[in-house]
Description:
By secondary structure, the chain is α+β, with helices and mostly antiparallel strands. 64% of the residues lie in helices and 17% in strands. It has helices at residues 2-9, 12-21, 23-39, 41-59; strands spanning 62-68, 74-80. Keywords: Membrane, Transmembrane, Transmembrane helix.
Amino acid sequence: MVVTAVFGLISPREFTRLARLDKVEFWLAATTAAVGLTAGLLAAVSVGTTLVLVLRELDRIRVIEVRRGPDGHPARCCVPVAPN
Length: 84
């Protein structure tokens, strides 16, 4: 039953389109589909959600600003950038 459900969600045409447009999205979809076929739909949803959250966090831009502190020595200060 799980195999039928996962195969219903997989479209070869969409996978080839994803492979051309965005490699990261393609590998995310392929990994989620593979987990769905081997471990079940709940595990696939968990893995897909985790991968999306981790990749979004890794893609966030961080700016490190170097200033002179009150004592005249360089002091690093991390300035977070607002999420897109």
